[in-house]
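Task: complex structure prediction.
Instruction: return structure tokens for all chains below.
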Amino acid sequence: MEGLLAQLIVMGIKILVILAVVLGLGAYLTLVERKVAAHIQRRPGPMVVGWHGLLQPLADGLKLITKEDIFPRSGNRFLYNLALVLALVPAVLVFAVVPFGPEFEVFGLKVKPILTDVNVGLLLVFALGSMTVYAIALAGWASNSKYALIGSMRKAGIIVSYEVVITFAVMGPIILAGTLSTYEIVQNQIEQKLWYIWLQPIAFVIYLFALLAETGRVPFDIQEAEAELVTGFTVEYGGIKFGLFPLVEWYVEVLSLSAIGVVLFLGGWSPINIPFVGFVDPLFFLGSLSPFVWFVLKVGLLFLFVLWLHWTLPRYRIDQITETAWKVMLPLTFVNLVLTAIIAPIVWR
Amino acid sequence: MDYLGFLAFAFVMLGIALLMVFLNYLLGPKAPSSLKDYPYECGVPLYDKSAQTTFHQGYYLLGLLLLLFDIEAAFLFPWTVVYRYLGIFGFVEMFLFIFILTYGLLYAWRKGILDWQFEEEYID
Amino acid sequence: MPWAKEEDFIELKKRFPSLEIEVKPTITNLHIPKDQLIELLRTLKEEKGYKLFIDHSVVDFPEKSPRFQAFYILYNVDERKRVVVKTWTDGTLPSVEKLWFAGKWAERECYDMFGIMYEGHENLVRAFMWETYQYHPLRKDFPLEGYANEYLPSLNEVLWGDNLQGLMNYDRMHTPVPTLEDLEITQKRRLKKKAQLVLNWGPLHPGTHGTMWFLFDLEGERVVQCDVILGQLHRGVEKLAENEMYNQFLVYTDRMDYISALCSNQAWVVAVERLLGIEDLVPEKAKYIRTMMSELQRINSHLLWLGTYALDIGALTIFLYAFKEREKLMDIIEGITGARLTISYPRIGGVRMDLPEGALEVIKAFVKRFPKELKDWETILSRNRIWLRRNVGVGVIDKEDVYFYGLTGAVARGSGIPYDIRKFEPYDAYPWVEFDIPVGENGDVYDRYLVRLEEMRQSLKIIEQCVRKLESMPKSAPFFAESPDPKKLKLSLDGIGLKVPEGEIYSSGENPRGELGFYIYSTGGVKPYRVKIRPGSMYNLCVYPKLMKDRVIADAVAVLASLDPVVGEIDR
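Output:
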């Protein structure tokens, strides 16, 4: 009984931590993006609200939740709201399988900083990721507006194409790791003293592309092409519903997919890696906090890379995006899979 | 046990999402006017009254392709997990499987499913 | 002078016995009766080489019979000659749609403004007003204030029953206002739906460069047909011109193409000076100042084009970099002229005031810094893979299309035709400065982009030369013309009392957007009888439906941005 109660409390704390991190951090990442964008464009960015704009996300959130709830007159109300739920819930649930650090001990209890350590963790990730297509397609259809429909069909086409690409791209690291559990993949990387990125550069690059496309980021953000379709499938949404779609797409999903990318390719919470030799930890002075800091640093690095691309590159056209996915990236993933299957036994010996 | 955590998390998130759905209705002002809920068409009247007409079958074909490749991925996942123990037999099997997959992709490519955005159709 | 001589048309007189050739110093007219009009135009286009369509409109003489005098302005690019074909009609004309597509749009405008019916026109709809509008505004019997016959109370009265008395009491009768039904009828008559969905890429949209209303007939992502509804920014400038003095009309010209205001001002001022014949009276300093300011404004306008073009394609940062440079330019222009947007600095006879102290140093500093910035941006864009994939091969215009659609400006130069009014019919200080004209090869969007970038560099070259010349001039050099005989020709800075003799002229200037032309018909007096403004953007835009046929919507922005329209000029 004792054990059960303790486990339930630990679970509760984990849920709260993940919620705080994801939703809170997601909101503050909007500020980070605006500041980074501003500095690339040689201007200061939000400076008024709070010191250097630190209260800006709060101000935006407050503004959005107090807006009037306008519903398009010929829309389908149930699907309209369902789309929002289907967008938000699966995107955040991915964080349930993300391991933030190694197992540690507190009050005599062994705690793994991961909510759901099951041996099909990665499958859960992709299952949840596929639900975004539902959200987008339903949002476009329920709004009953041509702009929404065209935007959502385009977006759904892209996400569907890149789902396939990402599924095949991650098979390389899975072969090397031999398990689908995210925690154990990181453990295997630490045991083998090898970040899988050294053996899987092609897969990593393809994974990055697929990350950009799935989350609707430049150069694949035809959704946000204001010049063409204003805001695409969110054109009939208002208030916090409108704010949630980009929050989920651009920030929460980028974070979750970057976290999975770090887990798969960059060794999770391990410090800097010299292949086959060992790890070097410049942050050793942080003691047992060091793995968590490394994880955050790596996810932050991927996120900043995504931001950097956003504010520098122009965007592709829709047919160029789907063409690239099926004609270039998918064959590359097949090649990668075959190569990995050949190289892996050599590595294991 | 872990799945219990997942389920609990799912319920919490569902609650938050439902809250978000109704938050604007609860907190926002209500001032309906005659044209406020007119669908967005850049400020002019709609040409087609409803947008829920048929749309191009190219999207449907992409969805079909997704279905095929996802099922094949579902078959490949268990193979990748136990590859370590399968030896050369596993490799050859997988190679044949992927070869058939690629053949399917090539078929779709040649049939023009991936180029439908620029298809020349005869419309009169 | 670029007007055709009489000897060019001698052999035409054998074929068209009723042809009359009238050669004046400011214009060359060919008068022909209506039934032989199409034949003459076809002969001029195919045999004589007058292939480029410049303009077509109508002058209303209500007391004469037949009432309307129609004119067609044509240009021969190889021999650099211009001719005007005139005919008289009572209300119908044959359509030149088969000869020039640009004529189709010009005819829609004449139908709208004058009520002329064109036989053989494929879809004769109104160009600027809505379909159910009853009047024809540019006729002489239509009053300037319009007919206020619609009861239009204020919104406060309708919604909340405010009854305003006393000082706030106003006239509730208003000129006709379109309702939603009118807009619906307009769009249904414009485009007959052939494919699956019709999308209104409408006036209130952040992607169109102004309030233009596009209709796309879509099949999935592909555009099957496309049409443009204009007139959301129509202010009736040509009607106003008949009621304003020549110098008063100057302030209207910079509100038309508000981005390149100084160039439009210069074009009008040069047109009136040519009509008066006082081009030699304008002092040299004024000419150099006008040229320099025009070129600064050209860089300004191209920077705006670059910023919005990159923004539409997705490179959001270039927008802000370009606007930063624009701020510097506008500060310079504000320091010299006093205004940033609607400038009205040139005057008929010179400029408004002299350059202030330190202006030339600031301009020199800008000219030194700017090429480096331009090179920085080129490394982001010109060799970028995504940029190339979005722009190369998109929106290709070939040479015959340039003549068929009446394209001018960077659009024509991008397709390989070195059409630049600054070289063909030089005005102000352009004969005395050296510069090159960039010409493209393929005529796609990427070529037009490169042409405009290179034009910015050439403008810098011109500015350098002007600055050097202005520095060497004495400080007390005059900036405004002195009239030799104030009784006959009164020239003053405010233009009151400027009488223009009888005559007509067509004169154009090279706007950053194309050729901005003014056809002035004057019957003596202080106010013109008819001013027809030839907007470069409108004829550049009429190639858009052809370019968008069978393309994806995503190209709509790229193609539109490369044509660089400004609605103020299109709608006037």
